Amino acid sequence: MINFSCDNPNYRNDLMELVRAFEQRTDEDLCLAVKYDVLPGEFRTEIRTDKFEKFVKTSRFPYAPADETEAKRLQKRFLKIAIYDTLVFLTGVSLPYGCLTGIRPTKLYAEMGERAHDAFLHDFSVRPEKLALIERIVAEQKGLRNPSPESIADLFVFVPFCPTRCAYCSFVSMPIDRQRKLLRPYTDNLTQEILYLRETARKNGYSVRAVYIGGGTPTALPLPMLDDVLAACGGTGAVEFTVEAGRPDTITEEVLDLLAARGVTRISVNPQTFNDATLTRIGRRHTAANTEKAYALARGRFDINMDLIAMLPGESEEDFRYSVDRAAELAPENVTVHTLYLKKGSDLRVGGYRSTENAVAERMVDYACRALTAEGYEPYYMYRQKYTSGNLENAGYTKPGKACLYNMDIMEEDTTVFAAGAAAISKKVTPALNLIERNANYKEPLEYVRHFDTVMEKQRAFWTPSRI
Predict the structure, then answer these.
(1) Global pTM?
(2) Is residue 293 packed enough to be buried (19+ CB in 10 Å), middle (13-18) or exposed (0-12)?
(3) CB of 29 within 8 A of CB of 1?
(4) pLDDT > 70: what percent of the chain?
């Protein structure tokens, strides 16, 4: 347990993310007291601990922010560097991504330009192999990023229903059999919102380059309702149209025929693991054989992504390596390797499950990277989350020319997103002002339906020309 105090309570939550990452890797009992001073041209930190009598670590950083926003960003950055260096000294533990706690390390790297390599390696203490991964992704994205953020946008649609709820899931997703009465009002409202957003995008001079229907499992919807949603999204002229068909038990010839007829270009067929015992353990109602059957049905009709998860309960390194190798043999266009992420709402975390084998997690994701790149895949996007095993990353791998544009757009935050559905968050990106504005819908599907008039009022207010 590491007890922590800071001069500025507004920074506590951000700094605690870093402290918690050390708590995953050490049994040390420590108290840290962090103070700082803003001096002319200098930001100075002072950290004390109860581990050593009279211990004081003082750090000094050059400091000349252009405005208040940059001042806050620099102060948090310098505090993280100072805390990280202190905890490494006190515990003997280092973290794969050093003092970085943000979701989007590749975005930060790109923003820092020529300074990025040295800053990531020496200031942020990112391990060389993780820095190499970041740099490989940034290089892969060149030529694929949104060429005109002022006039090119994405459309995101959220369908929060699944056949069952996975034990690790903390997203807004609901077992569909318990929500039959909600399906029709939800999809009716959803299609209305989609059509409004499409017309709003057109009126404000946006073309759509990527449509993404996510979940949940959109293909769990009854076919007529799925068709309504697909029809509302069709005909945008987008170069990419993705539907998360992730649960193999929802993939049939009829579903695939409908997706193809409506212009879908990319789907997911997500095994998570090719180990049947694990699938049962995590609450998925299908087998590895079902995954391979669904994949065979879809092969050649769509670009396909497969998700795998490292550190699933009860899985050995051998189990995970087998899943990676099997995915590589099947050769989908994309493979996304997640590290188990246990947010407060997941059944596993509620049940007290904890993953503390950080070295195993590191070996798993390192193996996935080596095995997939050896088969011709390139890492093309990444993100990180709190409560992730080993404080590691989620990374997407692609065959040449098959990267998912939406995944890059959403993670690099350089593209306006018109977002529909419960828990959906629209984003208005204004590059000239370095500004991102957000509009969040009601999180729960029932609230989204009950308060749909308010949802639409907020959308209209957010997308009025005065805000664009």
Answers:
(1) 0.94
(2) middle
(3) yes
(4) 95
